[in-house]
Design brief:
The chain is an alpha+beta fold. It is about 25% helix and about 25% strand. The chain has 2 domains: about 100 residues, Cytidine Deaminase, domain 2, CATH 3.40.140; about 110 residues, endopeptidase fold (from Nostoc punctiforme), CATH 3.90.1720. It is elongated and about 65 Å long. The mean pLDDT is about 95.
């Protein structure tokens, strides 16, 4: 086993039962393991690399791989892991602590299905689902950088501030929703912290609520009550 894997394995064991995360960095011609702080609120089954740790690693060498551990699960990547790997364009390494097994993988063109995704803030959340839906119909939307943790977003949701810069306009009161329009919701929040896509003819909303699988749900009383703004893509 290479030296960096020995260090990564020890880091994973030290952090158990939380997920450890780190970076594989080439420094002076050798692969080194750089520990990173896991910023996820629920570190038992998620990880978010501290952006300061990532920036420091970039300054020290060339980042060639991303590592995290699965405390109890198999080392096989989740759908969120596969999506994040596609976004990073780097090799990913997973170490399963309880099973003492490794798995590595890299970008392969994976695209997560729109229905049935597990929630992972910043990777598989309501905005990425909406963005992926529009991409499936030939519209590439601007992405927005997330805060480092979901709680920061809950305290200061930004959908209401950026929909115009993303290419949407708000529908007038007399306008009816059309297939493919977007809706901003306030879900257990005073701010507009959730977004979905309206689909006809069944009057469904494609969306992804935290803690649930992505789904299509009927645009009925509860979702109507939570509606804050109705949007149409115009660019």
């Amino acid at each position: 086993m290479s030296d960096w894997k020995i260090e990564a394995k020890k880091h994973a064991e030290d952090m158990f039962p939380s997920e450890a995360c780190g970076l594989v960095v080439v420094i002076k011609g050798r692969k080194r393991y750089v520990k990173c702080k896991n910023m996820a609120v629920n570190a038992y089954d998620h990880f978010i690399i501290n952006p300061i740790d990532y920036a420091n690693a970039e300054d020290s060498g060339t980042i060639v791989g991303i590592f995290h551990s699965h405390p109890y699960q198999s080392p096989n990547p989740s759908s969120a892991d596969l999506t994040a790997c596609e976004n990073s364009k780097k090799i990913w390494y997973i170490y399963a602590v309880a099973l003492e097994k490794w798995h590595e993988f890299e970008s392969s063109g994976y695209k997560a299905p729109l229905i049935g995704r597990h929630y992972s803030f910043g990777v598989h959340d309501c905005w990425t689902l909406v963005k992926d839906y529009y991409e499936s119909v030939g519209i590439k939307l601007r992405d927005w950088e997330r805060p480092t943790d979901p709680e920061s977003f809950r305290m200061n949701p930004y959908f209401d501030k950026c929909f115009k810069d993303t290419g949407f306009r708000e529908l007038k009161e007399e306008e009816q929703l059309e297939h493919g329009d977007s809706i901003l919701f306030a879900i257990n929040s005073r701010g507009l912290n959730h977004v979905g896509v309206f689909l006809l003819p069944q009057q469904m909303v494609l969306h992804h609520i935290e803690g649930r699988l992505s789904s299509k749900d009927f645009y009925g009383e509860w979702l109507v009550k939570c509606t804050g703004k109705r949007l149409r893509y115009v660019k």
